[in-house]
Design goal:
alpha/beta, 3 domains, four-stranded parallel beta sheet, four-stranded mixed beta sheet, 46% helix
Length: 323
Amino acid sequence: MTETHSAAAAEKIRVGVSACLLGARVRFDGGHKRNRYVDEVLRDHFEFVPFCPEVAVGLGTPRQPIRLVGKAAAPRVVGTRDPQLDVTDALQAYGRQVADQHNDLCGMIVKQGSPSCGMERVKVYSDKGMPHAGGRGAFTAALMESQSLLPVEEEGRLQDPVLRENFIARVFTYARWRQLEQQGLSKAGLIAFHARHKLIIMAHSPAGYRELGRLVARVGSEALAPLAHRYIERLMQVLAERAPRKRHANVLQHLLGYLRRHLDAGDRAELLDTIEAYRKGEYPLVVPLSLLRHHFRRNPHDWVGQQVYLQPHPRELMLHNAV
């Protein structure tokens, strides 16, 4: 069967990362926050492009710490000891600059809790010094606003197997889309792209599956460029939703339907039992997927063989072993 991630991975996918997570000593105290999973495991699959927004806007190392102050919706980034130090505008401008100059990135991994890089629940301090976790780092906020399609995740959240698999699957999906654009977007290309991603979309959102299907059905009757933009925008939103076991089980049973003519009663019963055990949480997803791949190798099906769902990311990452 086709290794569906391989085309996008012929060259390493470029992913931005907070430099401190790779061991660069750029923290306010002159230290780093090297993340072993990011630096040792993901580095084998991604070409990392490191950024340290605070150093980039002229703050030295070591330096006075900064924090978010004010309203969570629009906080200022100021010095903890000298509130007159305000780097909000500089960090936001740098986020827009990175978005503009590095539009080849297919993902971004940022430092959790950072007033410049944090993606969510960053502490915002009131005028009286009371913190509440409701902000987003100024650099990352500007980057995400400028590149709304870009998958972004915090290194702390990558410890969650479901969030980790979700993020990396989105990175590889976005890389495949960017490759399609580079080859020259066409009506046939968009239709084929959607066909390959049907099952992974179904696992995340049946409603999104129907909506994206309706969009693709308009190919030929609407201008391609705006239609394609609406498609990839909605696709990335759909894939950002967690795919629960129940929906995965539905997709697995859908795949089983393509094998019914080829399996005897014992094989069918084994697959049904395995899918049900997965649905109940007794097995990880890799178990029913491996069994299905085994049967499809013996009984190939052209459409199934092209489905990204069966191998959305490199097998060596073992992301389906814990979801």
